[in-house]
Specification:
With 112 residues, the protein is of the alpha+beta class. It has a four-stranded mixed beta sheet. Helix content is 46%, strand content 15%. It is rod-shaped, with a radius of gyration of 29 Å. It has two domains: 40 residues; 56 residues, no CATH class. It starts with 8 loop residues before the first helix and ends with a helix.
Length: 112
């Protein structure tokens, strides 16, 4: 077996110090990634559940309802609030527009 390490003590000690520094850097990175992963998992556990139905709200006095969406619809705007099945059906029956992307009226069983 060939030995590719330097034959003298000063260079071997230099290599040992260099590798120790690298191991310290690697250990710090591993610790940081473990903390980040623990924070991510804690955030997922603390995240509130996605509501089944949301109503997109308009701008202005009273923020009137504008459109009904399923809870995870990508097309829903930022101004929104969760609603129950009963309220979602009532809003659709009162003429509120249903999102054409997630089709909440179809999923609620409300036919025009």
């Amino acid at each position: 077996m060939s030995d590719d390490l330097p034959p003298d003590l000063p260079r071997l000690q230099a290599l040992r110090v260099w590798h120790a520094l690298w191991l310290e850097r690697i250990d710090r990175k591993i610790a940081a990634l473990r903390v980040r992963e623990a924070e991510r998992q804690r955030g997922e556990r603390a995240r509130p559940p996605v509501p089944e139905w949301i109503v997109e709200l308009g701008i202005g006095d009273g923020r009137p309802p504008v459109e009904l969406h399923t809870g995870g619809c990508y097309a829903a705007g930022k101004r929104r609030r969760p609603v129950s099945d009963e309220e979602a059906r009532r809003l659709l029956a009162s003429g509120l527009r249903a999102c054409t992307h997630c089709e909440p009226a179809h999923k609620l069983g409300v036919l025009d």
